Amino acid sequence: MQKNTSLRRRIGLLALTGILATVVWLVGGVVLWLMLGQQSKLENDAQHIYDVSSAKVFEATRIIRGLERLAREGDSLACITDSEQRKERRQRLESVLQDAALQGDSDTRALVSRSFTTLDQTLAVAAASPGAGVCAQATALWAPIKQDLLNKSEAVGAEVADLATTEADQILQTTSDARIMLFAVAGALALASLTLFGVLYFAVARPVVRLSKSLFQARNGQAIADGSEFIRELQLLHDAAVALGGAHQELQTARSKLEHLAHTDALTGLANRRMFELHSGQAFVHARRYQEAVSVVVFDIDHFKHINDRYGHDGGDVVLRDLGHYLQNAVRDADRPIARMGGEEFALFLTHAPAQVAHQTAERLRKGIEALEVSMPSGELIQFTASLGVAQGSDHDTDLAALLRRADQALYQAKRNGRNRVEMAD
Fold first, then answer.
1. Is this structure's pTM higher than 0.70?
2. How many angstroms from the chain centroid is the CA of residue 408?
3. 8 A C-beta contact, residue 324 and residue 267
4. Domain residue ranges in the chain
């Protein structure tokens, strides 16, 4: 009877051990399955950022660039005394009106249409009553619509920034949820493992160890006394830690790419207009405070419309992309940012650069651009030139926009004087 009771007890302990072992394996399988599921979800969320958010950031960048270009051009267009030059620049602005990115939203479309109506009114005022006071009159007429354009540009920028932040916060929340869930399941697995090994120890290992010790003592003639043995368990969660670390790295990479897209021109890899105005505006204020010499170089590609007409917009994009690569290598880091301001227009802000140094830099860029050879999609090699305007900051420049306007006037003087040349602003 006593033997049967002992046998049933041992069978019960072995059955309990088997059940606990099965539970541990099942919990381990659930941990692995949940970990793989969370990793897959994080990868899908990261892909969502690339496929959706990046496209929206790119479209918003085009809208911001078009609105700010329209505001800037309209501010200075009526002040140009040369009617032919004024007509030419007005025709170039048609590209803004035809930009598909500015036609998608009804509010933006209405604002652009109203802007061109007001712009034509200012040009009519300039044509009807040319004189010294026409610039101030036209600027006053344009000022309200310019403010609306800049407000809309800022609103679009804020909207896309909120989108990027929302997407990033969602990934962070997913990562946090995954970490909490894995810790909870890992805790349950650790508890089950401790229970299993506790049962194994007290049901099997401890009696065997005590019996072995007693036999050893008995063989040596020593007194047999009760003793205790302990078994420690470590459950490593390496796979869970690796999965969480990889998910965090993917999130950081996605956020870095979004920040890069928000401040970089996608085609050329250069800074966009917003980044240029932010950094150059800060450098301009610093230079005025400490009486340092700064200059701006503004330039665009000569006869770029002819390149688009002959080789198509794909050919024009190749020219802009290769020019962007050259400018990134040709301009030292201390003189950045160099930016694509819109279309075929570029700008470079030079710190610690008086007029002579700025002119030398512009001439070096002009020669470098002239020497470039670009391979068209058809395989044909072409070359092109650029006209550059240079302006050194002066006490009359109240802000960066004033300095840019003087450099812009020098650029159009270079166009009138035959192109492929550098002109200094007065």
1. no
2. 29
3. yes
4. 1-263, 267-424
Q: Give the model's pLDDT for residue 390.
A: 98
In this structure, what DSSP letter does residue 418 have? T
CB-CB contact of 80 with 93 (8 Å):
no
Describe the crossing of helices 273-289 and 400-416 by its angle, rounded to 10 degrees: 110
Distance CA 54, CA 254 (A): 10
Do 385 and 363 contact (CB within 8 A), yes or no?
A: no
Name the DSSP letter for residue 224: P
For residue 337, is the peptide bond before it cis, meaning its omega torsion is within 30 degrees of 0?
yes
54-77 and 134-200 helices, crossing angle to 10°? 160
How is residue 94 written in tokens?
């048609």
Instruction: Show the beta-strand stretches assigned E in 167-305.
Output: 294-301
Q: Rounded to whole angstroms, how far apart are CA atoms 324 and 33?
A: 47
Q: Are strands 338-342 and 374-375 parallel, antiparallel or unpaired?
A: unpaired
Cβ atoms of 185 and 56 within 8 Å: the answer is: no
Q: The dihedral of CA 29, 32, 38, 42: what is its sign?
A: negative
What CATH fold (topology level) applies to the domain 267-424?
A: Alpha-Beta Plaits (3.30.70)
Mean pLDDT calculated for residue range 18-37: 72
130 prior amide bond cis, ω within 30: no
> What are the angstrom distances between the C-alpha of 168 and each of 164, 172, 173, 253, 341?
6, 6, 9, 11, 28
Would you state the structure tokens that stand for residue 320, as one six-digit string? Answer: 């802009």
Per-residue pLDDT band at 230 (split at 50, 70, 90)? very low
% of the chain exceeding 70 in pLDDT = 66
The CA distance from 294 to 353, in Å, is 5
The owner of tokens 């290769």 is: 322
Kindly give the pairing relationship between strand 422-424 and strand 386-392: parallel
What is the C-alpha to C-alpha distance for residues 224 and 426, in angstroms, rounded to an integer?
A: 108
Q: Identify the active-site residue in 277, 344, 345, 423.
A: 344
CA 298/CA 276 separation, integer angstroms: 12
Residue ranges of the alpha helices (H) in 201-237? Answer: 206-219
**344 a catalytic residue:** yes
Contact 171, 254 (CB under 8 A): yes
**Range with the poorest average pLDDT among 165-169, 336-340, 383-387:** 165-169
The 10s digit of each residue's pLDDT in 243-275 is 555 666 776 776 766 666 678 898 999 999 999
